[in-house]
Specification:
- With 289 residues, this protein is mainly alpha-helical.
- The protein has one domain: MetI-like fold, CATH 1.10.3720.10.
- It is 72% helix and 2% strand.
- It has 14 helices and two strands, in the order αββααααααααααααα.
- Strand 1 (38-40) and strand 2 form a beta hairpin.
- Helix 2 packs across helix 13, helix 3 runs antiparallel to helix 10 (207-222) and helix 10 (207-222) runs antiparallel to helix 13 (257-282).
- The mean pLDDT is 87.
Length: 289
């Protein structure tokens, strides 16, 4: 029996996508790499700097502090949003008009642009005109996210939880909807408790969507910029100056293109490495099955 000839002409359909990716991703990346190994004094004149900028970034106490704040923020966000999203998905209606209403309600925060979210919470938390700040002041709680670092952190964390928990909930809800009713019927016959149904039926079936949720929320929280910048501007002091805010200050505010380029490449590699570790750990059990 003769093998059918392989038709490779389908690759021509992919060429426009590859060209678009090369134009929108690879070429800008190569520009950043070029800046990271050179120095300039203006007039489009560049001088070889080698790995000098990378050494400065790695040895910078300022960037190490920003990295610590970034890791802490992402860890808190994942610790809150993943369990909360699962809890909301488990308690959402499965069918009927209420299910549709809940889906629309959960999707609303995701439709709001990032800068608008920051502006909403900036006004919401103000002591003079904001509902949250004014109410807390009336209750005798000393709340001021502009002057107090803890209040600024709490505001940004609550803002992110409000904005992005819906994504986790919707992904988990989709995973729950894909579970056949036969699993629940068998668990009912075996008189399995609610915890055992979740532990042995629902959680394993949600593993794939949870992987997506964790990766998406980690990458987004690790790259967060617009919301905290609009609310606090990185303050008070440097309390909420995360890596992205520090990078923009270095590139745009100080116009240090070489260090900023090296910083951005290290930033990219850190996100890539941690995402790879997350993916490897979370898919380890799937590969063993």
């Amino acid at each position: 029996m003769m093998d059918k000839p392989v038709n490779n002409r389908a690759w021509f359909l992919v060429l426009p996508v590859l060209a678009l990716v090369a134009f929108s991703a690879v070429l800008p990346l190569m520009t950043v790499v070029n800046y990271s190994i050179q120095d300039t004094f203006g007039n489009n004149q560049f001088f070889w700097a080698g790995l000098e900028w990378f050494e400065d970034v790695i040895n910078s106490d300022r960037i190490r502090a920003a990295l610590g704040r970034q890791i802490l923020f992402s860890a808190i966000i994942l610790a809150i949003e993943i369990p909360l999203g699962i809890f909301i998905a488990l308690n959402m209606p499965k069918k009927g008009a209420w299910a549709s209403f809940c889906l629309v309600l959960m999707a609303l925060p995701l439709l709001i642009p990032w800068n608008v979210v920051g502006t909403i919470w900036q006004v919401f938390g103000r002591v003079d005109i904001g509902l949250l700040g004014y109410t807390l002041a009336k209750l005798g709680i000393d709340y001021n996210y502009v002057n107090d670092a803890l209040d600024a952190w709490v505001t940004i964390i609550v803002m992110d939880v409000w904005h992005w928990t819906s994504l986790v909930a919707l992904l988990c809800y989709a995973g729950l909807q894909s579970i056949p009713d036969a699993y629940y019927q068998a668990a009912k016959i075996d008189q399995a408790s609610r915890w055992k149904v979740f532990r042995y039926i629902e959680l394993p079936k949600m593993q794939g969507v949870l992987l997506i949720a964790v990766l998406l929320r980690f990458m987004d929280s690790f790259m967060i910029y617009t919301e905290p910048f609009v609310v606090t501007g990185g303050g008070p002091g440097n309390a909420t100056t995360f890596l992205s805010i520090d990078l923009v200050k270095m590139a745009v505010g100080q116009f240090d293109l070489g260090p900023a380029a090296a910083f951005s490449l290290i930033y990219f590699l850190v996100i890539l490495l941690i995402s790879f570790v997350f993916y490897t750990v979370m898919t380890k059990d799937q590969g063993a099955q």
